[in-house]
Amino acid sequence: MKRIRNIFSVLLLGISLMMVSAPGFSADFQKGLDAYNLGDYQAALREWRPLAKQGNADAQNNLGRMYKDGRGVAQSHTEAVKWFRKSAEQGNADAQNNLGRMYEDGRGAAQSHTEAVKWFRKSAEQGRAAGQNSLGWMYDHGLGVAQSHTEAVQWYRKAAEQDNADAQTNLGWMYEHGRGVAQSHTEALQWYRKAAEQGDATGQRYLGRMYRWGRGVVQSLTEAVKWYRKAAEQGDATALRHLGWMYDAGLGVAQSDTEMVKWYRKAAEQGDRIAQNSLGLIFEHGRGVTQSYTEAVKWYRKSAEQGDEWSQNRLKKMGIDWTKRQIAKVEPKAVKPANQVNADESERVKELEKRLALLEAQTKQTEQAIASDTQPPSLRILGKYTEDESGVFEGSVTDNVEVAELLVNGRPIAFDSSGRFTHKEYLPLGGSELTIVAIDRAGLKSTETVRLNREAPKQIAKVSFDSLNPTTRYVKSNGNAIALVVGVADYEKTTGAEYADRDAQVFYDYARLKLGIPKERIQMLINDKADVVGMLSGINKWLKRSVKQGQSDVYIFFAGHGLASDDGDTAYLIPYDGAPDFLERTAISRDEVFLEVSSVNPRSVTVFLDTCYSGDTRGETRLIDGRPLNIKLQEQSLPEGFTVLTAAGGDQIAKPLKEAQHGMFSYFLMKGMEGDADSNYDNAITARELHAFVKQNVIQQSGGSQVPELQGDAERVLVRFR
């Protein structure tokens, strides 16, 4: 991935003069700004240096930039760091980003990725897009912090949403390659386009690539050329090569050797090793240029010196030691006497004449063999098989003179010096037939046909969900929090509530790791431990006694059966030994629970209820035979300070999510608490955000038949990440 963070922050356009208090300061700063924009750096320096010395943070930042770039002053990275630091320590977000860059690159200060991250974070947390993009880059590559693509995406997104083109390109790349987010070519295309339309050359090139290969958009070679050209005209070396390639192959433009050479040369002159290799090949064969082995060797050598193996091998085949020139620079040859030089030259000429004569004889012999050849190549298929979505076949080809070309469905493929070859290509469902043609120097052909089969998959496509994982991000411990966690799946006197015990067991860890509740302040009641006595004891004897009045944050999680009274006025939670036929005597009123908890005056109470009151179970059987359907629970008022998230409306069914082996509401509740519900990326999840996330996903998975509800304080922060 190309580095997309090459711009230092400098206050030159759209400047904020918050740091400038006196009117004279403002006027002098603007004079410096006007001069800088006109290229009069000395005049800008005259205005800004006094302001910087008087403590103006904006002037200090700009003075640091002038020292970094050597504009109006002798370039000095040490001085640049000095002025960036003065400004950064006053809280200037642009200077903080700039200082971070100097530490990252080791310019003017000892390289320190830890210090770089420190300053990038300060800038990012002030909302500066450049700092956010820089911090995202450090998380992306694990520099100064533990690598986290999820964190990288978070910071890239914050910057991208402020129209930072570098961040938009980076975020697009993360989506294209599925790093920190689910892979989505459509999302990648969207962000590349935003960057490209701002004139970002890398974004333009990436957008051209998406059109070239039809990723996230209908393939269009014309559009690909359009965006490659925009990037190339800004001097992007890779885009210059891509544009040369499009002219080379005639893709999206009329084929043109002249244009091909033009764009390859521009890329090669910027040091692009692949373009240098292509230019060497062009000169070797005289395509669009006068054939010149001297020029070919020149460009092959440039490419080879950058490590291009193809160029290195090509030079070897041409009898040229591409490392020789480098050695000669280090170890120049001794000067020989003139008579010795002439003798050596004469011997060299004789040796070259011998080689030329031998080469001419071999060429004539080969031409005679070709002219008299009547025997086509020998072509054999030695084996074939399928490998995932690809078909593979192996074979050999030989000829009494020389094999010129081996084609598969008209496309050339490689074979080694012994004639062995292996070919692999995409194989669609149902298979395909491939025609292999071997052609010798005389133009004689041999043909074989290979049928490769690929059967349709027998397995049925399944819906799958990510595993729950509360350990991904950390929160601060809340010593004033307390939780009662209840889950009943195996009821004694009625049908079970599928996965309810598992919901509670996993929520125990979310209570610790996402709500920050110490484990000694969480009581968990599972199945038979959650009988009527166990639940009442948990509420009255433990929870109420553990609350500190006005200080404690209380959390209650219940997964299991609920039921409304016949008139729909009262909601009941059914304990392990509860009997739906004797609801009022064996179940626990929700209002009773709320009243008992509110009586000890906690600071806040948050309740999560993965239950319903319609009379149906998670398995959609009836709790009470013959009971009328859709007894709808009436809306009930809440005590002050309560926030309640419920799995479903009063007349709806709280369903399981079988693929995840959890209740549907519980699964998305916990998944949202991992950070997925943080819709504004502020490292805090409110009840409103969590409800919105859960509601959207539950409605989708239930086909709209289950709609989670929220009552109480929607702005209460439930999860706060460090």
Major β-sheet profile: 6 strands, mixed
Helix content: 40-55%
Give the low-confidence spans. 10-25, 326-339, 624-634
Number of strands: 20
What fraction strand? 5-15%
CATH class of the largest domain: Alpha Beta
Provide mean pLDDT, rounded: 85
Q: Structural class, from helix and strand content? A: alpha+beta
Q: Could you say how many structural domains there are in total?
A: 3
Gross morphology is: flat
Strand order of the largest sheet: 9-8-10-14-15-19
Briefly, what is this?
The chain has 722 residues and is of the alpha+beta class. It has 3 domains: 67-76 and 84-264, Alpha Horseshoe (Serine Threonine Protein Phosphatase 5, Tetratricopeptide repeat), CATH 1.25.40; 378-452, Sandwich (Immunoglobulin-like); 481-720, Rossmann fold, CATH 3.40.50.1460. The protein is built from 25 helices and 20 strands.
